[in-house]
Design a protein that fits this description.
272 residues; alpha+beta
Length: 272
């Protein structure tokens, strides 16, 4: 029995010695976050693009021709834009805090205001400083040094249908500002939304309607209105998605205001 005890003692000693040698042989492990540093935070453009593509799939399915167009509408000019664009909204005038006067601003039709801008009692429009042709030309210039793959992905006018492109090439975008009881609406479905195709009542300079008022109206419906009638059947619910797809108001210094409807209720109930 004595020799069995000796054998057991020797085998135990060998086991712990080998374990200790293996432990010393293994390299010291560093915390995981040091081996794999966190990725840098997404840029404003990347965050915007992710939102747009998610909504685009929701409302348009697998149609691809308009995807880059909506990314441009919503995200162009944001920090991190691969094409280094200014963004089309940069050329729109800022909405005045009170209803504007003069001939430069055109008052919108009352029936259009009532249907698409609840809680607003008046809306006004003003054309962009530059046409879509000029905006596209500046985008080409700004992106000359950009990698060709990025251009292929984000140059929306290269992917847009030729008919749509020819329409844009002859028109101006526009600003729309909506008011409730003399105050600019800045939040909610009552706020004015920029128009891809300028259209307003009254006599408009021919440069803004080179295709004639009737065709301008049809094109405005096609680019700015039909998406509401066809994709947002329960309008104004869904206004936040409409904004995220590219029609969000241009920032203004006016205080945040949702507007008040005809029953003296705050329009914030549209949040629900």
């Amino acid at each position: 029995m004595k020799w069995l005890s000796t054998l057991f003692f020797l085998s135990t000693l060998a086991f712990f010695s080998s374990a200790e040698s293996v432990e010393h042989a293994l390299p010291a492990t560093e915390p995981q976050n040091q081996n794999h540093p966190e990725a840098p935070p997404a840029s404003a453009f990347q965050q915007c693009e992710k939102t747009v593509l998610t909504l685009y799939s929701k409302y348009f399915g697998r149609q691809n021709s308009q995807r880059a167009f909506h990314v441009m509408l919503a995200c162009a000019g944001l920090q991190g834009d691969p094409l280094k664009r200014k963004g089309w909204k940069n050329y729109l005038p800022i909405c005045p805090a009170e209803p504007p006067g003069g001939n430069d601003w055109k008052q919108d039709w009352d029936n259009s205001v009532a249907k698409y801008h609840p809680c607003a009692d008046s809306c006004f429009k003003h054309s962009s400083r530059k046409s879509w042709r000029q905006i596209m030309s500046e985008e080409r210039t700004a992106s000359r040094s950009v990698d060709k793959k990025l251009k292929a992905t984000y140059s929306w006018f290269r992917q847009l249908h030729s008919d749509d492109l020819s329409v844009l090439d002859r028109h101006y975008p526009a600003q729309q500002c909506c008011y409730s009881r003399g105050k600019l609406i800045t939040e909610g479905p009552g706020a004015g939304t920029p128009d891809i195709i300028f259209l307003a009542p009254g006599k408009t300079p021919i440069r803004l309607r080179p295709t004639g008022p009737l065709r301008a109206a049809l094109f405005h419906d096609r680019f700015d209105v039909d998406i509401i009638d066809e994709r947002f059947s329960k309008w104004p619910k869904g206004w936040e998605d409409y904004w995220s797809l590219g029609w969000s108001p241009v920032p203004t210094r006016a205080p945040k205001y949702w507007g008040v409807d005809s029953h003296n209720r705050s329009c914030e109930y549209f949040k629900d």
